[in-house]
Amino acid sequence: MLAFVRLEPSARCEKIAIAGTDIHVWAFTLGESEAVVEAWREFLSDDEKNRADRFVFRRDKDHWTVARGALRSLLARYCGVDPAALAFRYAPAGKPSIARIEADGEEPVMFNLAHSHDRALLALARGREIGVDLERERDDFDPLPIARRFFFGAELAAIQAAAPGMRRDLFFRLWVAKEAVLKANGAGLSRALDSFGVSFNSEGSIARVRSSGSAAALDEALVVRTLPLATGWHGAVAASGDDWRLRFPA
Questions:
Q1: In sequence order, what E strands does the chain have?
Q2: What is the pTM of this model?
Q3: Out of 3.40.50.150, 3.30.70.260, 3.10.310.30, 3.90.470.20, which CATH number does the structure's domain 133-247 have?
């Protein structure tokens, strides 16, 4: 089980090693006291502080501040630099990456962050594009209308065929898998969710990508692995190839 832990605002400098075939996933909480939020805020750049201040609701501002501060703190340890030394660049669809050159012979540290309510997931790898998504299951809606609008035919058929009590679980498992694929591909929601499908194995733990029509350029080597989270939470990581494994260092 991958448990959500509380991370301490700390500028620890010891480097965390990560193998080329590993993807590390950190799961952490975002709800903190005002004092702890302010401690995390010290990790942010001026631009990031300005972005945080644009949130309308204090809770959203605090959660974003903790998530971004934790991102900087953990990335700094993987890169072996001070958190303040990190700079980011952004792809056309908004996916961030580290704007620095790694030491000779090292693949760059790649990452992806997801948060939902007061929880977050951070996935990291070396030299491998990755995507991660997190959702809290809701029991106040019917998944079928949304599935009819956004899902691939085989996915919709699976949800329709599932027992009523299992439809929400399957819906969210598919949703986080598809979102993780989009984030690994760097497209975000600029690519339609119904332009590709994911097909799970019999255990429901690993999925593969099937493109459709205009989505032919989608990387069909992407593999999705679901995360073993507590009941009511769904998470998935997507990356290219079969040669990677999940590690939970926290």
A1: 22-29, 88-90, 96-98, 109-116, 119-126, 130-136, 196-200, 206-211, 222-226, 233-240, 245-247
A2: 0.94
A3: 3.90.470.20
